[in-house]
Every structure is written in C-alpha cells, then in structure tokens.
UniProtKB/TrEMBL annotation:
Domain of life: Bacteria
Function: Cell wall formation. Catalyzes the addition of glutamate to the nucleotide precursor UDP-N-acetylmuramoyl-L-alanine (UMA).
Binding-site list for ATP: 123-129
Natural source organism: Mucilaginibacter sabulilitoris
Gene3D superfamilies from the UniProt entry: Mur ligase, C-terminal domain, Mur-like, catalytic domain, NAD(P)-binding Rossmann-like Domain
Protein known as: UDP-N-acetylmuramoylalanine--D-glutamate ligase
Catalytic activity entry: UDP-N-acetyl-alpha-D-muramoyl-L-alanine + D-glutamate + ATP = UDP-N-acetyl-alpha-D-muramoyl-L-alanyl-D-glutamate + ADP + phosphate + H(+)
Biological pathway: Cell wall biogenesis; peptidoglycan biosynthesis
Sequence ranges assigned to domain Mur ligase central in this UniProt record: 121-299
EC top class, as a word: ligase
Subcellular localization(s) per the UniProt record: Cytoplasm
Enzyme Commission designation: 6.3.2.9
Amino acid sequence: MNQQEHKTQNSSLATQRLAILGAGESGVGAAFLAQQQGYDVFVSDFDVIADHYKKQLQDWNIRFEENQHTEAEILSAVEVIKSPGIPEKAPIVKKLREKGIPVISEIEFAGRYCDAKIIGITGSNGKTTTTSLTYHILKNGGLNVGLAGNIGKSFAYQVATEKFEYYVLELSSFMLDDMYRFKVDIAVLLNITPDHLDRYDYKLENYAASKFRVTQNQTAADYFIYCADDPETIKGMAGRSFEAQQLPFSIETKIKPGAYLENDNIVINTHQEHFQMSIKELALQGKHNIYNSMASGIVAKVLELRNESMRESMGNFKNIEHRLESVGKISGISFINDSKATNVNSTWYALESMTTDVVLILGGVDKGNDYSMLKELVKQKVKAIVCLGKDNKRIHDAFEDDVEVIVNTGSAQEAAQVAFHLAEKGDTVLLSPACASFDLFKNYEDRGNQFKAAVREL
C-alpha cells in the first residue's frame, strides 16, 4: 500500500485508538506521526518519562501516562506500537497477545507512510559505526538521506517532518522482532555473535532468526549484503532462501560480486565499475573496521556513487562518540573512550585494533559475560586492568592468571587517575567495559562523558 492509499484509508481511522508503550525517542516520534495521520493516540510508560519528552507530548496535546499502564486505555487500541526495550514477557504485552491486538515497532508503523529507499543495517557488533559511515558516504555523495533507527532522531518523527529520498536505519534485533511488512531495499547483516540472549530463551538460533528478519519481504530488485567470513551468518543462511541479490564481503577469500581484500586494498565489485582503496587510507583502522568499511562501500556502489567521493568519505569519517573515540594524549599516553562497548565482543574488537600496550578499564553490570574470548588478546596486549563497577569478582577470576595488576575503582575519575599512573609513555588507556553501565552511571553515554571529563582533569 503506498502513502496515498494510506492517507485515504486513514480518513476512516480518524477516531481509532493507537496505543504506544514507552515514551522514549521512538515512542514519542511514533506518537507525533500517528496523531498527524489522524489516530486517537495514547502513550503509556511504566517508568518516569524524561522531561523533554513529556514537554513534547504536552505541546502536541497527546494524552500520556507514566509510572503505570492503564489496561482499559491500552487494550481498547486497534494496534499498539511497542518500544524495542519492552520484553515479550512484560504483563501488558502478554495481555495484548492474548487479545490478538497487533503489536508492532515504530519502524514498521513509520514505514507505512514512507516512500524513501531504505538501507537497513543490523548485526551484533559494528552496527552504529557502519550506519554512521554509510550515512556519511551517502550524504557526501550528494544523496538526500536521513539517519534513524537505533541512532539519532526517531524514524517516525523524520517521516512526519522531513522529505528524505533515502534512509540509513540502524536496526536492532528488538526492532526487527516487531517488524512484519516493512521492506528494506538494501539489507546489511554484519555478524551474529551471542548478545541479549536473555530475550531469546538463551538460544543463539532464536537471536539469529531475529537478525535475518532484515531480509524479509525483499524481492529480486533488492540487495542483501553480508559477511562471508562470519560462521553464524553462513550457518543461518544454509536453511533459508533469499530473493534479493547477494553481495558478500570477505577479507579471507576473493569474492565476486561483492568485496574482498587484495594486497591491503579493499576491492568492491558490483554491477558498477569496481572500486579500490588502500586500507591504510581508511579513517577507521582495525580488522573489524575493514569489514564495516566494505559493507558501507558496497551500499555506496549499489547506489552508484562516484569512486572519488567514496574514497574521500571513507578517508575523512570521524567515528561516533563513545565508540573508540580518541580523547587525547597526556604525557605520551593515549586515552580512548569506548564506553559503547557493552558486551564482550565489542571489547574484543577494540583490543584487536590496538597497536600499543594497553591499560584496560573494564566492568559494570555483567550480563553473564564469558570473558574467555578476551584471554588471548589480554595476554598479548594488556599490562593492567582497572575495574570500574560495583562487583568485579568475575573479572578478577577471569584474568588473574593473565595480568599482573588488577585494581578496583568506584568512579570514572578514580579509574582514569589509576590507569594514568599504571600507563607509561607510548601506552593506551582504553575504556572498553564489556558491561552495561547501570551500576554507577545513567547509561553508557554518561559513563563515557564522565571518563572524558576525568581525562581532561588529569
């Protein structure tokens, strides 16, 4: 159904109730779009609503509640838009499922009113970096493009207020779970590693199935870009069929069409003239970033961007805040803020890209982490570990045989000071916690900002 048909249909929906669970960025954006489309909107958050979101809802005269879910209001809706953070086991979601009321994501809802071409990027690691890089390349290449999903302003709000011809969407597994008819024109699957398994009955195949939803509804005119070196991706593809044209990328084997590595050059072959660039010229260094750059580069070539423009963008891109973000140098010691590393895999990628000795700041709320995959890299590169969390026992147990010095700290300021004293000229102090931040901080941004402030005070 196209936008016009929706508008016609919506004139008859004018009084239909649409309930929205969760009043964060996605919920509030969806509320604005739903009201614009003529729905009777009700927003419900089981927690406190942040002041700036509350003010937006008040300014738009949208009814809302916080610290509770009024079932009579929610269960009278024709459809419910659920925040990605709310699990299936939440009582209100169970009741909606029992009543057969459709529960969808903000992305699914906004997609009904959007005619733009969609680039959807998912994966356990590298999503935000690849999404930001892809957006940067497309914008610099002259395309009228928006950035949304798990990043930036909500997709729904932008659909209501902007007229972009392309969107680059960072799609989490939680968003994909509540997407049904939404179609991605260019789907990117970076990798599949264990994460959020508590939401998937602790089964990796359930989580993988969620990631593969990025390809649902694709046709032969669409593209599926994936990593041929990722074992879980290849395993998951074996039992599935794909309508879209496949463009894999690899640093281990030569692949055509797709992308591969040859003599330290990224080579991209699609139906377009081929693209080549030395990995030494890439703004993003480290093996994992070669993969991220390949994925973004394939998207750009599918969209027929010029090689010169791509080369320039891939060479001058500044990484996102809190993801391997350089904080500066003091007494010859480099400080890097990778607070966004909230799982072990992300920390593995960060360590893998380090070329100096490292003082590693680890810890926080441990989601049942298995630190064994870090052991080899820690042995090779890490001279000391500074723990930043309330309970650090599992970190001590995991690494006491591999690192001579493991110190406990209780604040970002203390962690930065201790790490500074343990490091020597030429070393890197890396905040890459492998854990969530909720024991000592509001969120990973707060943790990263406090760390950066502490470094500036040294």
